[in-house]
Amino acid sequence: MRNAWRGLSAESPAGLRELIETIPDEAWRDDPVIAAAFGASYRTARGDRSRSALAYFEAALATLPADDPDAVIVRLQSAAALRTLGRLDDADDALDLAAEQAQAASAPGIEWRVTVRAMAALQRGMVQLHRGRYSDAAPLLAFADGLGERHLSRAEHVECLGGRALIAIGAGELDDAAGFVGQARSIAEGTLLLRSPFAATALIAELMVAVERLDSDTAHRLEVEIAAAAEGSDWEPFGWIATARLHALERDFSGALELIRRAGESYRGWHPAGSGAALGELLRAAILIRHGQGDAAWQVLSELPSDARHDLCAGRYIAQLRLVNGDVEGASAALAECDALGEAHAARTLAEVQLLRAAIEAERGNPVESALWCDRSLHHMQRTGTRSPLVMVPPLMLRELMNQAAARRQSPEIATLVERIRSAVDARLTAAGDEGGMLAPLTSRETIVLDQLRQGKTVATIAQELFVSGNTMKTHLRNIYRKLGVGSRGEAVRKAQTLGLYVTPGSPRGHSASPEADALH
Fold first, then answer.
1. I need a surface site. Which of 14, 94, 209, 234 has the fewest CB within 10 A?
2. Nearest to 73 by CA among 134, 118, 140
3. How far is CA 391 from each of CA 320, 350, 396, rounded to the nearest angstrom?
């Protein structure tokens, strides 16, 4: 029992508890290590029962001498339990104390010390991962992984590989992430680990890769697996966020927002909140932008903390919001910090920034710069297989960028990718046109301009009344025509009337509130 409890507590927690119960009371009731083993079996329990682990760990630590090697192992298990409950600061304190105890412990030998270092690196790395500090988590988890086969339990090694997969996704290396997931699945083969919280990181990473590559069949299969494995664990809210992104891409916005809400509620009990909370808010802002609720999206984005390498990168969503609203210069300014980071920018979000920059330069009338940014983004998408950058640019702008890319000399691989994107965008625009719907929501200012057009006012008169320049008015008109899929002011007014748009200055969203119009939108 003393030699095997770390593995048994993860792979067969209920069986471990039953086994301990078969031991005569006098043989274990006062044995702190067996008590810790009993507590460790609750780390994978569902719901509030997982809190029972801490009670057993605290009781064991109160009994064990501080310099006892077993006290260090139990302290590390306690740190893992604290992290599972979202108590990240407390987990870090426990890890610091474990390090001090390891230095003073009358250790049984080198193997023990290496095992302790591997376990500590894993737990420290997972805490840093929850904090969103990928650059700090990466070397810790790589170190633990290198020692994993000999010094980590099978469950710990699976969790470590899943953490490395999430870091690889953050770096934009989807193939590497898939490789780590494959290793985790291989180690877990023949066990129940893939149904346990130890596999949650690997399963979430696998789903995120599938979403990046728009592989909905695989993503939906993993959605079910994650729901079972992550239930009641520290990775459950992060799994909800990853799944919400899948629902958002498939336009199930209500389902996505509900998952984001549940995750936010869960993270509110953390100290501090995990990085998944900010990721969820970014996704919520993106959904609000898609629905034309720019003010609400701006409020969300303006309250998000910044991160050094832009792993989250709220700037790209602010740029998207301003670009959709026709504010090209505002969109450019929103990417200023991204431009300053240059190649130090997080790779996963850099391709989206590059495609946005391509759209901005195209709108400015700078075709050479637009082509450079667009081709850089295309090469990233071709190398990694990600397609998520495509959703950052309005479809009409995206089609124009791809038409221009097709006219340039490209490698066969990039040319094939461009044709696939063009076909997908054309199909989407055709479907929207056939349904008679808008291709994008109107902003409140565009709604006012549309109402002025309906009243028969000239462009010059409208510009004067709105205190804007003639160039700004041309931008508003161009955006209105694009979003409605028309070519003239007369067609714009007629289509607005057909759709039941609110063409009055008080309209907040620029389309009818009826369910039929919402469905078309």
1. 14
2. 118
3. 10, 14, 12
- Helix (H) / strand (E) containing 244: helix 236-249
Alpha-carbon distance of 470 to 374, in angstroms, equals: 29
In angstroms, rounded to a whole number, what is the distance separating the alpha carbons of residues 472 and 466?
Answer: 10
Contacts of 506 (CB under 8 A, 6+ apart): none
- In the block, tokens 């034309």 appear at 292
How is residue 400 written in tokens?
């124009």
Cα angle 135, 140, 146 (rounded to 5 degrees) comes to: 130
Nearest one of 49, 50, 73, 71 to 61, comparing CA atoms: 71
Residue labelled with tokens 């980071």: 341
Q: Does residue 365 come out as left (phi exceeding 0), alpha (psi in the -120 to 50 range) or beta?
A: left
Q: Is the dihedral of CA 41, 44, 45, 48 positive or negative?
A: positive
SS (H, E, C) 266-321: HHCCCCCCCHHHHHHHHHHHHHHHHCCCHHHHHHHHHCCCCCCCCCCCHHHHHHHH
C-beta separation of 354 from 370 below 8 A: no
CA 201 to chain centre: 13
Residue 463 near residue 477, CB atoms below 8 Å: no
Instruction: Tell me the CB-side half-sphere exposure of residue 140, using CA atoms within 13 A.
Output: 19
DSSP string across 406-463: HHS---HHHHHHHHHHHHHHHHHHHHHHHTT--SSPPPHHHHHHHHHHHTT--HHHHH
Please state, in angstroms and rounded to a whole number, the distance separating the CA atoms of residues 487 and 481: 6
User: If you search the block for the tokens 């997982």, which residue do you land on?
Assistant: 50
Rounded distance between C-alpha atoms, residue 222 and residue 244, angstroms = 13
Q: Are 211 and 249 in contact (CB under 8 A)?
A: yes
Element at 254 (helix H, strand E): helix 253-267
Q: CA 372, CA 358: separation in Å to the nearest integer?
A: 7
